[in-house]
User: Fold these one by one.
Assistant:
Number 1:
Amino acid sequence: MNQEDYIVRAMGADRQLRLFAVTSRNLVERAREIHNTSPVATAALGRLLTAGSMMGSMMKGDKDVLTLQIQCGGPIGGLTVTADAQANVKGYVKEPNVILPPNAKGKLDVAGAVGPGFLNVIRDIGMKEPYNGQTHLVSGEIAEDLTYYYATSEQIPSSVGLGVLIDKDNHVKQAGGFIIQVMPFAEDTVIDRLEATLKEMHSVTQLQEQGMSPEDMLEYLMGDLGVEITDRVPTQYHCNCSKDRVSKAIASIGRKDLEEMIADGEPIEVNCSFCGSHYKFDTEDLQKLLQQ
């Protein structure tokens, strides 16, 4: 089960549909290891990471950064995922140990953990101000919330499917997803066919359990509408924090606060929310930052 995570980018139905599909088991399992998440928190964070990997790969500029934030009233407290244009993703959940009984279908109750709230999509593409789109959560299941976001905030009719399957020892057995976007010139017959397929389809993780790759998933979704694969992109859980980056963040808090920290005479420790790395700064380190 050590198959590498990767994204397939493609077009369907004579370029009337823009397609993305991903297998993301390893990156979701890495997030579970880092944050020691409960099964329902793993499923929620895993879905958002999976979406983030595909949405990151859609960005044009090498230095573009995408942030997906869920602010919610459920016991999970909120989720944040960041992705870059190379499909490196990282994320965290506010309450990683949340435990809930299964939902009415006997599945992990992601919607119950998330509850009501908002989805924020922030794109930093090097302009003065990042682009920020916000929509309310329609279900808390994440895939439906992203489908709604695309339709209302970006006016792109889309279908988003996301899945995370947890095995009996709480490890990630399968994870993946797809995003289908309808081009403005798409014919009604193509849209009708797609809607009919989506209505009947098995879940993403059921398809993966049958041995389907991202390519197979797109073939299954398109049927005889046809798929034209444009490229394959590796994706991974990757945090780019470093002592240097943390130093810059501390230096930016202002001279007065730095002087107070130094006067306290105690070392400070900064923890990265995304990967759990600890960075210690003693008074000598803080003095150096003050002199910069």
Note: Residues 6-237 form a domain with the Hsp33 domain fold (CATH 3.55.30.10).
Number 2:
Amino acid sequence: MRHLLITTILAALPLGAMAEDAALVLGVERYERLGRLSRADDVVVAAQGLETLGFDVTSLANGRADTTLAALNDFVAEAEDAERLVVVMSGRFVTDGSRTWLLTADAETPTLLSLGDKAVSVESVLRILASAQGRAVLMIGAEADDGTETGDAYLRAAIGVLDIPQGVTVLRAAPADAAAFLAEELSAPEADLAVLIAANPRVRAAGYLPATWPFMPSEVTVEPADPLGTPVVDTSVEDALWEETTALDTVDAYRAYLRRFPDGNYIEAAETTIAEILAEPNRADRLIEEELHLSRDARREIQRDLTALDFNTRGVDGIFGPISRGAIRNWQQENGYPQTSYLTTEQISRLDAQAERRAAELAAEAERERLAQARLDRAFWDETGGRGDEPGYRAYLGRYPEGQFAALARQRLAAIVGEREAAATALDRAAWDRALATETLAGFQAYLAAYPEGAFKAEAEARIAELTEPAEDTAAIDAARAQEEALGLPQIRAQLVELRLREMGLNPGVVDGEFDADTRTALRAYQENAGLGVTGYLDRATAVQLLADSFGIRIERQ
């Protein structure tokens, strides 16, 4: 079976007669999920020196499980009749202490029971080499600490204790040093390998190592090149496959290209793209959203919808930053979608429908609240200002300074005060004028002390009450201001708000889309009348209330 451990295939080696030389070179630098291991595949290029010595070289750079399996099978077949055997393995290695494996390019975070066909057993390779005692070399290119993370406590990134068979030589070096040794010393014809190993401090040897060891054969004579010149290579088939591969733009497509053309012209691009795709789990979803070509206004609309549904985007700016993506992800989770943070047409439509429904619910809720506040306002008026006396008017204005009867109460109260002022004595008037001039608590208290029953007693007491009232809730005002800013109203919408306030007789000043002092006063009057928090800012509750007052028309969308 294809998914049996590679160990099983290697162990099936029959021991036969030896005649020629065979080499297997595996170098893995570009790991799809485990990160690159610098220069680990240099050994593949360095293996050209073995070919000049007549070796039948099976080499593979950045092999995945399937291509590595094919290379191993080819080497096993060649090894049956080989006189000399050389195996070079360079990349990320893991061990359980007694066994060691080289990970293939498509390996994921390794665990002891999940290595499967994505790891090559070093022990099995040593068994193959044992068939050529005294004529077998294993070269391992590995970093002392390559940073490979394992998925359990049974594996670690390292070369374990190797049980080296008799007559087999094991050489170890860093990947770049292993490539250099393979290209130079190990490819030198008739060189004394024992001397070369001893002279290279970057290479460590274990196992079989005699004092004198002319391991390699003489250099093979290379036939002269074709006098007609190098033939032109037709790349049309590869080019066509690459065009189809990039159109599909999937990991499987790029892997299929690499299997078909392991030495092709687009290997670098294919490996890079595979790594990019695997590094971005939601890449396909991102590309789907990008195909929608959402405008800045469309993104603002989505942010408003999310905010209306209580998924905070921290502003409506048309930019999908981390906060907006988090809001989308939370909405997707609540609605049973994969949490990609990227939207599809269907999801946008559903989100918009939910926001419209929520706006209608808020408008209905606001209308109910407005009617309830209006009933309370009317009932309080009937018990206070409706009785037609000064205490009643003042009581009403104290509770509802911007209520629906506030203007009438002030008008009648002014008339009462006017009548009283006309009857006031000159001294009383002078004392009152002095109190008014100071406009201080002490001034009004001095007036009452001098004229405890003066004509302006009630008004002085009212001024004192006003001056001793607690300050407005600054925290609530700050919060309302922030909500108004978050709405990001364009000028035309601000003008519509001012027009609505003017239609209600609240005098917002010039209708120019700029919220000035007159607009703030009108907003406070409206909020007081609607039973909302009186801040003077167009917070979310006030905006919804205004919409509810506008003949049931829902929020228009940009």
Note: Residues 1-19, 553-558 have pLDDT under 50 and may be disordered.
